[in-house]
Amino acid sequence: MLARRAAIVAALFCGTTAAAQEMKSGSLPEQGASALERYVAEMWSGADADWKQRLQQDETQAQCSRFRNNPPDDIAEAIRKREAATIALPEDGNVLGRWQDGEKIAQNGRGGQFSDAPDTVRGGNCYACHEMAKSEASFGTLGPSLAEYGKLRGFSAEAAKETFAKIYNSQATLPCSSMPRFGVHGFLTAQQIKDVTAYLFDRESPVNK
Amino acid sequence: MTIICRSYLCRTARSDLLGIEERGALLIGKARRAGSALQQEKFKSAGTWFVLVYVLFATAAVLGMGIEGPKAADTEDEIKRYREMINDPMANPAYLNVDRGEELWKLPRGNKGVSLETCDIGKGPGVLEGAYAELPRYFSDANKVMDLEQRLLWCMETVQQLDTQEILSRKFGTPSATSDMEDLVAYIANKSNGMTFHIPLNDAQEQEAYAIGEALFYRRGSLLDFSCATCHSADGARIRTTQLPNLTKPGKDAQETMGSWPTYRVSQSQMRTMQNRLWDCYRQMRMPPPEYGSAGLTALMIYLARQADGGPINVPSIKR
């Protein structure tokens, strides 16, 4: 009994960055990972089947968890490749929607919570983490400032495409980024991502004023 | 200026405000019974302060609407004065929970018709002083690591043979139904004021819980790929205007955080416990609601409490 516990503790501690970097390959030792998932199952034993799906990690989530968002190079590369493959650019090549709608999406932090009605319109809540329009003083600092984003990039069409892709899947450029992969889970629709891209790239958008 | 609702708090903003006034009135009533003119004055100004500060918080932070730079500086002053009030028991509505908690602790209930006064919270039967400072901990009688809420439920079931289903149906209090759990936690945690967290992790089960808690802290998932670490692993980071504690390391942030829960949450006009705070963070993470008193939540709590080791306790506090 004691030995088993010691093994679990040791296995879990191997997940720390330093130890993980040394391990390089292989998964979180079986005992630690399965002990954790047993706790997870018990912690949400009362959730209904639909909600329980959210307990399942995809491979990228599992790897970022295991390496505490600091994966060794080979795993980082695997994540980057896998995530890049998920990005679907609009077929007509136009990545710019309406910046006015984009602003609402950037301000809105609702949707997908157990306290929300299921039909709640989802927002990107970009302001939770980013400075955007300078006129909006209530912004968070978990992400870099996006003030004058399009202007600083010369309103280039290429940069706008890259930004659409960034919002669609942040981890295609930065494995284990803190930023949600908005397109992958379908949290935002392609149209919504176009709208926030326009919010960053339209000359008339307050972001570029 | 457009106001955009960022959370369910918006829906209750008006009733919250009323809630605070009501509570202010209650407090004033209590002071009157105490018969001190001085205290009455204090209560009145406290009531005014609550509403004022609440409005500030609601506009600046909860609703997340635009505020101008200079106003933000004013807000900091207000917050400073507001913080000074926390330690004034006569100004903090959560002391109503403390009083009710004391009554519940001494009330004979359940099939056995006895009170909780022989319940062992870790320092021996009935000993409350300093017990909260050492929780969560391993209890050999239950062969489990338990936080205060789990332990209280265990005592209700074993000492009193009380129907905990009914108690759990009110686990988070509302304006129309108070929570026995919140009241008892307020009373018992308050008995550790002036003491410091002491979480030595001597027991193997405590070590396992800590390791699981840490792994849970970094476990990313659901629709936004969040883990606790997404929001609580940088120094001085904010979500909107809300300051986020860095909970990944021992020290000041963890100590100030853990030493200030349970707390009266002005935005909800309720006193809340750590079970509720973690439930709320999992809500933001787009996870399903975690089971109250589950081993996983206790694991997270022992991880957090260990980071706060040596930090002073001053509860119930008041927060946004």
Verbal overview:
The complex is a heterodimer of chains A (209) and B (320). With 209 residues, chain A is mostly helical. Chain A has 2 domains: 2-84, no CATH class; 99-208, Orthogonal Bundle (Cytochrome Bc1 Complex, Chain D, domain 2), CATH 1.10.760. Chain A has 10 helices and no strands. Residues 13-28 of chain A have low confidence and may be disordered. Chain B is mostly helical and 320 residues long. Helix content of chain B is 51%, strand content 6%. Chain B contains 12 helices and 7 strands. In chain B, the strands form 3 sheets. A 3-stranded mixed beta sheet of chain B has the order 6-5-7. A two-stranded antiparallel sheet of chain B has the order 1-2. In chain B, strand 5 and strand 6 (270-272) form a beta hairpin. In chain B, helix 1 (9-34) runs antiparallel to helix 2 (37-62), helix 2 packs antiparallel against helix 3 (69-86) and helix 8 (204-217) crosses helix 12. Mean pLDDT of chain B is 81; it is low at 1-71. Chains A and B meet through helix 1, helix 3 and helix 5 of A and helix 8, helix 9, strand 3 and helix 12 of B.
**Count of distinct structural domains of chain A:** 2
Q: How many helices of chain B? A: 12
Structural class of chain A: mainly alpha
Helix content of chain A: 40-55%
Unreliable residue stretches of chain B: 1-71
Q: End-to-end distance of chain A, in Å? A: 64 Å
Radius of gyration computed on alpha carbons of chain B: 20 Å
Regarding quaternary structure, what we see is heterodimer
Radius of gyration of chain A: 20 Å
Q: What's the overall average pLDDT of chain A, rounded?
A: 89
By DSSP, the count of extended strands of chain A is 0
- The helix/strand order of chain A is HHHHHHHHHH
Low-pLDDT parts of chain A are 13-28
Helix tally of chain A equals 10
Proportion of beta-strand residues of chain B = 5-15%
Main beta sheet of chain A? none
Give the C-level CATH assignment of the largest domain in chain A: Mainly Alpha
Number of E-state strands of chain B: 7
